[in-house]
Amino acid sequence: MGHICENPFGVLRSSYLFMTFIFFIVLFSQQSFAETTNTYLQWECATGNDGKWICSQQSVLGNEYPRPNKIETFSVVEEEIENETATQVKKASNLDWIDEEDLAEEQLASRASGCCGAYIEPERNYPDSNLEPEDAPLRVASESTELIQDNVAYLKGDVNITQGYRQARSDTATVDQINRTVDLEGDIELREPGILLRGDAAYMNMDSLDVEINNATYLLHESGVRGTAQNLQRPGGDIFYIDDGGYTTCEPGNNAWRLVTSKLEVNPGTGIATGKHVRLEVKDIPVLYVPWVRFAIDDRRTSGLLFPSWENSKDNGLDFSQPIYLNLAPNYDATFTPRYIEERGEMAELEVRHLSKISETIFSGAFLSSDDGGGDDINSITKKKIQEGEDRWVADLRHSGFIRGWSSNLNYTRASDEDYFQDLGTTTLEVISKSYLKQKGTATKRIKNWDFLIEGSGYQTLIKDGLNQYKLLPRIQADGDFTIGNFEFSMNNQFSDYDHNEKSKVTGRRLKLDYSASWDSSWEWGYFRPTLKIKHRTYDLDDPVYAGGDDSPSVTVPLGIIDTGIYLDRATTWLKGYTHTFEPRLYVVIASDEDQSDLPIFDTGEMTFDYDMLFRDEQFSGGDRISDTKQVSIGITTALIDDEDGIERISASLGQIHYFDDRNVSLGTSVTKEMKRDDSPYAAEFQMRLGDNWRAIADAQYDSDDSELDRGSFGLRYRGQGNRLLNLSYRFNNKDPLIINGKKYDNDIEQSDFSVAYPITRSWDFVARHNYDVTNTRILESFIGVQYESCCVRVSLLGRKFIDRDDLESLPMDKLEEDNGIFLSFQIKGIAGFGSKMDRIVQDGISGYEIPDN
Question: I want to staple 700 with a disulfide (CB 3.0 to 4.6 A). Which of 213, 552, 712, 837 is the partner?
Fold first, then answer.
């Protein structure tokens, strides 16, 4: 997360004023102005034993030390100079800015988001430019040279000084060998990699390393930071002192905003800067003043204010939060967030992070004392709003570690009530609202062919009528995989202990063993893979599933599998440059039918039927049921492959299961019509890639018995460069109606979802989403927004309508109500902004959307 005044004033490094490296003058030259000859006179000077200059003049063919090239592609306009400083450097200076139409392709790709150009450093094409300054000789060139005294040299006319990657240029320079000082005057330019300094006059002491520049302009190429200083000093150390300074990330010619300080102290050694009498100016109009500020000048962490967040909604009214970042130590920090919610009261959020060599831990929490109730209706009996007077809170602990080959993970979240996230959400905490809050810890290790797992888990239900989950304390698992030639062996062993808050629920322990042996043979034209499996379950229950039943039930199911297929392909005659493939697949499963009615259901559900289900031997997830199916699945996949790049442009699959016998194993106690079917519904999948940007996917399940589609979906997606996105999807699922309190409710799912993000111009972006529930004729979520972005600012405005559950029930669905809100995001790049929550709304709502870099 960004800090207020983060990236401020750029990274003013100790190497800024590189002229402190001047210890003695080795060469200075006088170059002929004659255009018709390459011969010129060059002075070669050294210091005598008495400290005086000893110089000789030589004729040299060609320019031995060519002047570093300038870039002449941009000129700062007069208004820019007048706004920055009255006595600024020449108006023709371009600060290395190049407009986007003149940038090379690789430069365009690395250009900062929203910028109409970039700062590009000129090439260093002079001798020793690739060396460190301490490893290179000092070189000086000028148009004329005058020895004022034996120990003082005066250089005039296009003075150029280099030492390794350090460069200096000025109109004149005076070098005092005895006092060890250098004075530069007139259109001064000082360079190091990533840094450019300009000024009218500069003073350097080569012994004390003191440096002072008047009427300075500074630029940091990588961060795009530029600014001014009436006076810039470095008294011998790492700390820079700037008087009457300015700072902005806007491109040259555009001062949409800037910071102005009377005093600025920058310490590159610590990465910290402090400013006095700081004001923020927008279009040269002061809008904010602070007497003192402290901020980071690089990516090192420092305490300070983060981006505030602001929103307004029907239920909560004004919701404002201001995160405060605390850099407590190099390996741990904290973020404290006071939050004001107009219709609910004041609350606080806290996040603490700790990092060590073997672990990473994050704790998050939030607390609201005595909720005012928000926009909820007043209950006619209690005369209060639903949550009025209640303390609301959430706690979240996340840990990951690695020690002695063991990997550990902990994810524990708990909230005060079911509606916490619906009412309050989170502003800075990494906690996501879900139907169930996970409370899980694991430890894993791999030793040769074995994977070991120790796990404990539980859940908090956030749906009032939702089923509470079992607690798992603990689960111990050891899985081994071995290969001998074409034979593959698998041994999966798992012990689980299940508990539940409700006394009426069956609890106990389960041992799950799954062993298999396969013979895997494959050829260019196909494959053949027979498998033998044995699955065993045994339980130690605290109480039997049924009165008088077995409290130690067990079951063993052997099964055999044959999985085989062939690969056929040919060059297409009707579409040149493509290969047509045809891949039939046969999958046979024969499993023993064993009575499993005495087995409890701890963690088991029925998997959704789709094309992939044709080639699985198990229809249940979890471990409390073992399928008794006797079936053969037949599937066919055909595709068109582009010969040029090998990409599968079109793919279609169709298949069905044929059952040899009825199924007797289910999650319930009654026999359903699905268990009596001779054939499954047809399952189909389709995918298409059009060029590099378009992709279409679809799937469907057709029930031939009822002559209708049971389930289906379609999706179309476009993804271009940047955030050029279009997503269109539709899905439906025909389900049996729900009976609640004797009333029947439509349980079908039919939804459409459309979202788009597209740049209108280089600076303006458009985003929108419309997610509609056809079954209940309502909007699930809809928003529309615009965003303006330049080099220095990003402003976004978004209107949103969404479902708000305020009745404490998940069903019936038609009771869910709509809420709406307006979200504003404003960011001054390199300093601060607010409204970062809006970015998350857009990112969650538009698949593939990426939040722009600051």
Answer: 712
| All residues at 6 or more sequence positions from 599 whose CB lies less than 8 Å from its CB, including other chains | 537, 539, 545, 553, 555, 624, 625
Would you state the pLDDT for residue 830? 66
Residues making up the chain, counted from first to last: 854
Give one DSSP letter per residue of 36-55, joined into a string. S-SEEEEEEEEE-TTS-EEE
**Residue 851 in 3-state DSSP?**
coil
Distance CA 156, CA 628 (A): 97
DSSP 628: -
Looking at residue 73, its pLDDT comes to: 27
pTM: 0.73
Confidence of residue 853 (pLDDT cuts 50, 70, 90): low
Q: Which amino acid is at 849?
A: Y
Which residue in this structure is represented by tokens 């080959």? 405
Alpha-carbon distance 29 to 35, whole Å? Answer: 17
In this prediction, residues 591-617 reach a mean pLDDT of: 94
Vertex 210: Cα angle to 204 and 213 (nearest 5): 60
Domains within the chain, CATH numbers bracketed:
18-71+127-305 (2.60.450.10), 720-854 (no CATH)
* Dist. CA 516–CA 845, nearest whole Å: 43
Cβ-based neighbour number of residue 314 at 10 Å: 14
Q: What is the rounded distance in angstroms from the CA atom of residue 362 to the CA atom of residue 364?
A: 7
Residue 760 CB neighbours (<10 A): 11
| Distance separating alpha carbons of residues 805 and 274, to the nearest angstrom | 47
Q: List Cβ neighbours of 305 (8 Å cut-off, separation of 6 or more).
A: 3, 4, 322, 323, 324, 325, 832
pLDDT value of position 67: 38
Question: What's the rounded Cα separation, in Å, for the pair 432 and 413?
Answer: 10
**H/E element, 838:** helix 836-845
Paired with 305 in beta bridges are 324
What letter represents residue 581's amino acid? T
- Phi first, then psi: give them for residue 293, nearest 5 degrees: -150, 145
Instruction: Collect contacts of 74-79 with beta carbons under 8 A, ≥24 apart.
Output: 74/98, 74/99, 74/117, 74/252, 76/252, 76/253, 77/253, 79/253
